[in-house]
Amino acid sequence: MKNQKLKPFNHHLGRDLYRGRLATGPDPEITRFISSLKEDLRIAEADLAVNQVHSLLLQKAGILSSRERRQILNGLDRARREIERMRGSWPPPEIETNFVDIHPLIESYVIKTSGLKVGGKLHLGKSRNDQVMTDIRMVSSRPSPTPSPLRSPATGITSSPASAPTPGICKGFPIFTPA
């Protein structure tokens, strides 16, 4: 690691995630292999909503100014428009080979819109695991417009989806300590 050359930050899609750490990002084939982007399209809207609310929390905590929050919200709106535009051919190759999931893709749009100094604050005080748990909880609590039987490819067991969400608490502490 000592001899590895660090690269300067640039705004090239998913490579932003590796800013300052490595000279290059992962190989595009590896990124495509481990990518969950196809599945993450289902949680994109929830992820955007969680980030909007989190930006309000950051503003109320004094971490973001109202101007900085507006910049982040503009970046989230840009991400929403771009994801919607690409929905028919999701994920396009230039996205699939640069991002492993929806979270750094959304972050890259925020950073491109508001700059690293402001956009880099988007995930302060929020764990990635809690973000994913919240996204999944939001999506899974929506009633399906057209319920259909679900069949597990592994077991062959068929089940019917619930007609209404089950009330409860979905709390995840992946490291066993609350933030």
Q: Please state the oligomeric state of the protein chains shown.
A: single chain
CATH class assignment: Mainly Alpha
Q: How large is the count of helical segments?
A: 8
Strand residue content: under 5%
Counted beta strands? 2
Number of self-contained structural domains: 1
Helix fraction by DSSP (H/I, runs of at least 4): 40-55%
Return the CATH architecture: Orthogonal Bundle
Written overview of the protein:
By secondary structure, the protein is mostly helical. Helix content is 46%, strand content 2%. It has eight helices and two strands, in the order H-H-H-H-H-H-H-H-E-E. Helix 3 runs antiparallel to helix 4, helix 3 crosses helix 8 and helix 4 crosses helix 6 (102-114). The chain is globular and about 40 Å long.
